Amino acid sequence: MNRPHRDPDPAARRGGDGHRAARTGAAVALALAAVCYASWLLAPVLNPGLRPVESYLSELAARDQPYHLVFQLGDVTTGLCATVAGLLLARLAREVPRPAWWGLLVFGVATAVDGGFTSMDCAPSIDDRCARLEELGELSWRHQAHTVTSSLAVAGALLSAVAVLAVLRGPARRRAGLSVAVVLALGTVGTLVATLHPEWGLGLWQRVQLTGLSGWLLLTAAVARWGPGPERPR
């Protein structure tokens, strides 16, 4: 005797739909974070006075610079989006190691604090007085704390990027991951070296690093939505 056909459990179906919607929301948040984190591309228009090869990108958000609120808002939006995505994915994306989402959370919180509370007082690369006060430690605590929050953001991003790159499957995603890894590694190493020798193009290397970080956010958005494998989840 044939058993009557039964529809799937509506509660289970609603749970699956909610899971997909949450992952889609996290992916959209990460894509928005990637775009906002690239607000430095507006620098030639909004603040052409900073020297691209020598100036820190953080100087765009220094409180004495023109349109600094635009760049601060970009960092705060990036940080909030990354934090929300990290919280969602830590609960839902079990196929990716947890350090990926812990690192994303550290990056998000540190970047939001960076833009909202610890922006620089002034731009030392173009202001001799600012450079002297910075060297003497006479600028505000927010200016001095900026180095800490920026370093935490990069450290969290690198932790997350390594964890995400380690689980990518399929030729297309591995190629994308390799491209992101190369740009991010070159930018990070170049920035660290140029920190000791600013005349070696500190600003240029930092721009390469931030390009890699935006690439990591976009790659993570794809993983958030479709998982690390080549096939779409069912």
Write a concise synopsis of the structure shown.
The chain crosses the membrane at residues 21-46, 66-89, 101-119, 148-168, 175-196, 208-227. With 234 residues, the protein is mainly alpha-helical.
Fold and architecture overview:
Keywords: Membrane, Transmembrane, Transmembrane helix. This is DUF998 domain-containing protein. The chain crosses the membrane at residues 21-46, 66-89, 101-119, 148-168, 175-196, 208-227. The structure is a single chain. By secondary structure, this protein is an all-alpha fold. It contains 8 helices and no strands. The chain has helices at residues 10-37, 43-46, 68-92, 98-116, 128-136, 141-166, 171-196, 202-226. Helix 1 (10-37) packs antiparallel against helix 3, helix 1 runs antiparallel to helix 8 (202-226) and helix 4 packs antiparallel against helix 6 (141-166). The longest helix has 28 residues, at 10-37. The radius of gyration is 21 Å and the shape is globular. It starts with 9 loop residues before the first helix and ends in an 8-residue tail after the last helix.
